Amino acid sequence: MSSENTKSRYMSTPVLSKTMQKDLLEKAELLRANDSFKEAASTYLNSILLDRNNAETYLGLGICYKNMGKINKAIENLEKAALLDSNKFETFFELGLCHLKEEVPCKAIKCFIRAVEIEPDNPEAIYQLGRAHELCDEQDMALMIYQKLIENSPTYINAYLRKSTLFMKMELYKQALGLYLNVLKINPNYTNIYSEIGLCFDKLGKQTEAKRYYRKFLSAQPDAENANAILKRVEKLRQVKSKNPVLSLV
Question: Is 133 within 8 Å of 109 (Cβ atoms)?
Fold first, then answer.
């Protein structure tokens, strides 16, 4: 074999490997997009054999492992992706979600903070940051984050729901009620919070309004898991009112 042919063969090998790696990555991405996570993971691993310095490959593999329930492996690969590319929003967002699944919210906070630094206006990252603070028993910080999110993204319903849930736990029913009613203004078809609105009115001693929203909930979702309990509460409120008739002065 001539020296020229030998030189040509060895020079083409890296190019061939790069092309193969690109093809494998594209195949893996397509498999992952179709929720074929096991097959995608295998393809990502084959891609890594050809290039161990591609952040996208480790990111995709990490997401596959997360969806397969292999959280430790997911974290391992997402951390590799973060080392290779520290400016990729999806890497830190997915890493934060994995830490939440592992019930390590303090590590999740760091990841979501980095994700928000990369994409400051991403409501889902800000929301997950608030959740992580909640799980660290930092309710005041979570409330502040949800409020900021409501101000910046006034149609992002999850922020209202999480903040109102915190208010309910703190027995601040009037504040929670205001948030729930705002959700209905944003989406009048969000009928599953009728029960929560009814509960707020109930706790505030406004029985007529409570019964009205309880009944609206039962009408909209008669097969809900809590439907029977709410039906019993409506009946109890009805009985209480019938036992205390309004006295006529005429």
Answer: yes
Could you give the domains of the chain?
160-243 (1.25.40.10)
Residues 6+ away with beta carbon under 8 Å from 57: 25, 28, 44, 47, 48, 51
- CB neighbours of 37 closer than 8 A, spacing ≥ 6? 31, 64, 67, 68
What's the one-letter identity of residue 127? Y
132 burial class (0-12, 13-18, 19+ CB within 10 angstroms)?
A: buried
Chain length of the chain: 250
Q: Helices (H) and strands (E) in the chain — how many of each?
A: 13, 0
Q: What is the pLDDT of residues 216-248, one digit of tens each?
A: 999 999 999 999 999 999 999 988 765 555 433
- The string of pLDDT tens digits covering residues 40-83 is 999 999 989 888 999 999 999 999 999 999 999 999 999 999 99
| Rg of the chain (C-alpha set) | 27
Q: Is the dihedral of CA 210, 211, 212, 213 positive or negative?
A: positive
- Asked if residues 35 and 62 have their Cβ atoms less than 8 Å apart, the reply is no
Return d(Cα 143, Cα 164) in angstroms, integer.
9
Structure tokens at 106: 């303090």
The Cα 149–Cα 147 span in angstroms is 5
Torsion angle defined by CA atoms of residues 183, 189, 191 and 192, in that order, rounded to the nearest 10 degrees: -70
User: CA-CA distances (angstroms) from residue 130 to 23, 93, 134, 205, 220?
Assistant: 39, 13, 6, 31, 30
